UniProtKB/TrEMBL annotation:
<keyword id="KW-0560">Oxidoreductase</keyword>
<dbReference type="GO" id="GO:0016616">
    <property type="term" value="F:oxidoreductase activity, acting on the CH-OH group of donors, NAD or NADP as acceptor"/>
</dbReference>
<dbReference type="InterPro" id="IPR002347">
    <property type="entry name" value="SDR_fam"/>
</dbReference>
<dbReference type="Pfam" id="PF13561">
    <property type="entry name" value="adh_short_C2"/>
</dbReference>
<comment type="similarity">
    <text>Belongs to the short-chain dehydrogenases/reductases (SDR) family.</text>
</comment>
<dbReference type="InterPro" id="IPR036291">
    <property type="entry name" value="NAD(P)-bd_dom_sf"/>
</dbReference>
<protein>
    <submittedName>
        <fullName>Short-chain dehydrogenase</fullName>
    </submittedName>
</protein>
């Protein structure tokens, strides 16, 4: 079966930069109508303009994923404009702190969990309610390889992504009987705004690259390809999974010594 999304209606939450933007453009190239969202309508409109240049239908939306009512309203608007929603890409996420676990405060924890786990769940719920009524749909949540392997200075981001992957499995089991598929994509280190500081630190970057068998950061488009596959009918029997796209990082962690350097 060919991997394509002709005629599908896709909502990409957090679709204005990085992996989300790449996913929005890749879905459009695969034939989908794509609605990118961001916190500002201006940023969403910029991506919509790129999508329109590809010849795809589009609509920019702005809302805060922290607000469940706003998420539900966004889904309702997509359905009102296009008649249905076939695909949700949940890409909204933050990682503002690079601190050791003993330094994490309740406010830091709540801020990250509010977006990465609570916010995304209620967005998935809103999309799922519509898809369950139609008896069809694909939800793809962007997780992280760090949900599977430990890294230092990663909490609460890691915990939020671990919780997200548990949510993916639970929803897949609950919703599979109504033909709503729920999967995750777990990127490794990608050239996005979130890794800007790391990539600019020569020592940290060099040490990290030694642990990635492919020896480089991913480009956002390399993660978007997996998202398109999971959105397509080629993945019609795939649900409850989280696919690691990390250049071999997780596999390489099996040979890492306690000092964090390859054995």
């Amino acid at each position: 079966m060919a991997i394509g999304c002709d005629g599908k209606i896709a909502l990409v939450v957090g679709g204005t930069r990085g992996i989300g933007r790449a996913a929005a453009l890749a879905l459009a190239e695969a034939g989908a109508t794509v609605v990118p969202t961001g916190r500002s309508r201006e940023s969403a409109a910029e991506v919509s303009a790129e999508i329109a240049k590809l010849g795809a239908k589009t609509l920019p939306l702005a809302f805060d994923v922290n607000d469940p009512e706003a998420s539900a309203a966004a889904v309702d608007e997509v359905v009102r404009q296009f008649g249905r929603l076939d695909v949700l890409v949940g890409n909204a996420g933050i990682s503002p702190y690079w601190k050791r676990s003993e330094q994490i405060t309740p406010a830091m924890w709540d801020e990250v969990m509010g977006v990465n786990l609570r916010g995304l769940f209620f967005c998935m719920q809103a999309a799922g309610r519509h898809m369950l009524g139609r008896g069809s749909g694909s939800i793809i949540a962007v997780s992280s390889v760090t949900a599977s392997v430990g890294v230092v200075r990663g909490l609460p981001y890691i915990a939020s992504k671990g919780g997200l992957e548990a949510t993916i499995r639970a929803l897949a089991v609950e919703w599979g009987d109504r033909n709503v598929r729920v999967n995750g994509v777990a990127p490794g280190y990608v050239s996005t705004d979130l890794t800007h500081g790391l990539r600019d630190n020569a020592d940290l970057s060099s040490t990290l690259l030694e642990t990635i068998p492919l020896g480089r950061f991913a480009e956002p488009a390399e993660v978007a390809g997996m998202i398109v596959y999971l959105a397509s009918d080629a993945a019609s029997y795939v649900t409850g999974q989280s696919f690691i796209v990390d250049g071999g990082f997780a596999a390489g962690k099996l040979t890492v010594r306690k000092n964090g350097r390859p054995a």
